[in-house]
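Q: Now give one record:
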Amino acid sequence: MEKTTLISTCIFDAYGTLFDVSAAAREAAAEPGNEALAAVWPQVAADWRNKQLQYSWLRAVARKHVDFWQVTKDGLDWALENAGLSDEALRDRLLKLYWGLSPYPEVPAMLTELKQRGIQTGILSNGSPEMLRGAVESAGIGHLLDAVLSVEEVGVYKPHDLVYEMVESRFICERGEVLFVSSNGWDAAGAANYGYQTAWVNRTGEPMDRLYAQPRYTLPDLTGIPRLL
């Protein structure tokens, strides 16, 4: 029988896990004057996210690091051009909305329950410190987090081991006591390979990534996280 270690620390990826990365495009598309975006916003949102991730991986491999805000802007520029949109005001509006992305609806209650149980909580994200500060403040969840960790401290993006190591450096815990939660299968694989217990939040029912490690748990959203403890 597999030995189970009690979880003392629960760490979350930010974008796509706690914060809805489609919210900026969806909200902008609903605003007057953005009818051109309204017709294609799901494509823009998906392209934006895909290029954001691809650029982070490619920069990590090439050792050409820039912060995640630059990667986010570059990804948006590609997505807008691909959709045939060249409105500078629209670009500015999308970036402003991204700075304060909406959290998924279950996030506050889930984090509150973890804190009530005495669990250490935090974010470990590719996002820059300024981006994460804006998102956390906009969502009103700062009081429910013990730390917000950015890859800018180590200068390389996930899934590099140096990123996951930051949790052990910040929190008083053993590696096996950490539950790392991400909506990205590759991120959950990276954390599992490092030695953390991992939960993959698979909101869209995607197949599991064929990688060097797999998450221990798969959930449809974040509501079940407290039950894993």
Remarks:
- The chain has two domains: 9-19+103-228, 23-99.
- The mean pLDDT is 96.
- The first strand starts at residue 9 and ends at 12.
- The chain has nine helices and six strands.
